[in-house]
Amino acid sequence: MSYGHFEGREYVITNPRTPVKWINYVGTIDFGGFVDHTGGLLVCKGDPALNRITKYITQLPSSEFKGSTIYLRGRRGDRSFLYSPYYVPTLHEYDRYECRIGLGYSRFLMEYVGIRTEITVFVPEGESVVLQDVRIRNTGSDTVEVLDLIPVVEYSHFDALKQLTNADWVPQTMTSKAIGRPGGLLVLRQCAFMQTGRAENFLTSNSPVSSFEADRRRFLGENEYGTWKMPFSLVDGREFSNYEPLRGDNVGALMHHVGPLAPGEERRVIVQLGQVESVEKAMPLIERFREPEEVDAAFARMQAFWEEYLNVCQVETPDPEFDLLVNTHNPRQCYVTLNWSRYLSYYQLGYGARGIGVRDSSQDVMAVVAGAPGRAKKLLRKLLSVQKRNGSSMHQFNPKTMEATMGDAREMEDRPQYYGDDHLWLVFAVCHYIAETGDYAFLEEEIPFYEKDKEGRPLESARVLEHLERALAFTWNDTGVHGIPHLGFADWNDTVNLKIGAESFFIAHQFSKAARDLADLMDHLGKKEKAETYRSYAEEMKRRVNEVGWDGEWYLRYFDWDGSPIGSRGNVHGKIYTNAQSWAVISGNATPERARKALDAVYTHLNTRYGIKLSTPGYDHYDPNLGGVTTYPPGAKENGGIFLHANPWVIIAECMMGNGERAYQYHRQVNPIKKNEIIDIYEVEPYVFCQNILGDEHPQFGLGRNSWLTGTASWMYQAATQYILGVRVTHSGIVIDPCLPSEWEGFRMRRKVRGTWYEITVRNPEHVSRGVQSCTLDGEAVEVSGGAARIPFDTEGKDHVVEVILGA
Ligand code: GLC
């Protein structure tokens, strides 16, 4: 079955009955959320747990109303109709349906009963309002005598979890009031008592409202035995009751009479759903987006933002699906993960305390530094401010209150109450940011550590550089009996939670890479002694890893608290883990011979046609010693599933070892754009990466879930642009070191680095995988060493042409 296709920078859904809801993001976490492909809308302001606006329950069936919709009601001749231009919740037959997933907007097209509607949903940049810009045209040959347009939202309590846990207190706090009179431009204000400050939601439009409804019982009618498919308040051309509830399940519904509509005639109604401190004070904002020109200008500004963001890196390779991903869909997803971390998606529901993850967001930052350096820096500051004085880090924080927690560790008291990895990601993220931007001044910025006194004042601050050094020092001093770093509650793999004393090779590898990154930075800062010290740390860790961590064919993943190895051929389940191999190479810990063997072992034991599994074989029963990983059946999620986040690390490792064929094969087999061909197996959106695909031990092999918010986005983007295409920005210049499938003739990349443009052409006449033979910058030869070219940074602020030739 086909549900849609790619067109320009959009994905066009043409059949609304997709296997699961497919979504798109509008706005940012400051104000925004997602809109699904049938118009359902989940929006919040600042935080989906503490300030949620619409009630969108993803677990309800796809046919159900979720958060928001529009109804069209009318009559043409003797035919009456009531339907939604979003298809849900009326589920009617239609002549044409389209949902265009765009950059920051979704556009819906519906043709039915000779009426064509086009609705664009988006959030004007920096504003706290989501617009539904509706155009309705009579495409029939006779007049539509009666035509009513009725936007409807259902509100959530601001406290999203309370909404689901209390059905008396919540409705007792919810009130709605109309501002303005029926017959004119009316604002329907919705309000609840909120602990974290005052806020009012509003629903309004730029067309006269003849009546409104704000109480769900009245809207659905008959004590709610009316349904969203057929609300009783909409039968027989009735008007709404204009009732202003002081309790209840609050909705907002506005009746607009937009008919009659002569053949060819069109109306444009702009619906606003927003949140402000006070509607009275916000009237200028509300007035502004009643003007079509203002809406058009805001839309154009948003498009300009995306163009600018994407333009910093555009490529042309022999593979159009690779290009479509790398030029548009992958970097778009990276921007979305930067905004939302793992907080709010169709799968990660934004309730409770999860908030922004230090580990997750540090990785997200790495992919957007070139396109959105300002946002990246802002987020880095927040991430560093939840680091602790001892160098380790809190695990996650609420973006509104900046209150941080130790995540799931809190639930298991007999396990360590810190994560072994969080703080080390900070090192990667900051080093990456600095190299890309050249913003060395950031290293001097004072940022507080998380610990506070009774008044809430930070106990200590330090410069960013010292934050990084403390991170490294924490792990250097936190090793177990084999000299390998302690696991803590978990490393990257959240679901293996071993008892106190367990050691993690993933953290050993992370540590070595962090030490080398920091050494490179110290070199650049002229601090030779520190650079040497950190390099010696990395060398020492490498020695230990190779002494105790080699299993004969691959590297071990953990030592349990009692010293027994995990990820070893001696284990019955979980014999080999992917990350232990890829990261051994990425970190420089693997010796060349072992690196090759370890990566071959991944290919032999862990690769499938839908991607690389995280480990194998899957655990087949619950084992409290191992923890969460054994709660999944074999083949699911971290238990032998294709956990996509780990795939790009293997791609990077293969590139580092010069195996371009394999790196490309691994990239291509998980490229979501190709999933369009097997969408009934894959099920989730083909325009973004998902977090997990069921592995070949599972009967539903190939099924994807948890789309959008995954570190896969950032790392896939880095793998494609910095390792396959091989363009990396370092402290001392731009390294060009591609690792291609040998059949490629070459590629082109237009890349903006520190304010200047580089037009890079790579030719591969001898069809090799790797090895720069010669390179020119504006016609002059530049240094090539070790098979890579290094372009010095521009000092004149002009555009450059780089020509690279690969060869044996
Ligand atoms: C989820 C978490 C991430 C973790 C990964 C592997 O994606 O968000 O933090 O690293 O699972 O367990």
UniProtKB/TrEMBL annotation:
Keyword Glycosyltransferase carried by entry: yes
Domain Glycoside hydrolase family 65 C-terminal: 728-768
Record GO terms (molecular function): carbohydrate binding; glycosyltransferase activity
Keywords: Glycosyltransferase, Transferase
Species of the source: Winmispira thermophila (strain ATCC 700085 / DSM 6578 / Z-1203)
Protein name in UniProt: Glycosyltransferase 36
Record domain Glycosyl hydrolase 94 supersandwich: where: 9-292
Domain Glycosyl hydrolase 94 catalytic per the UniProt entry, residue ranges: 305-726
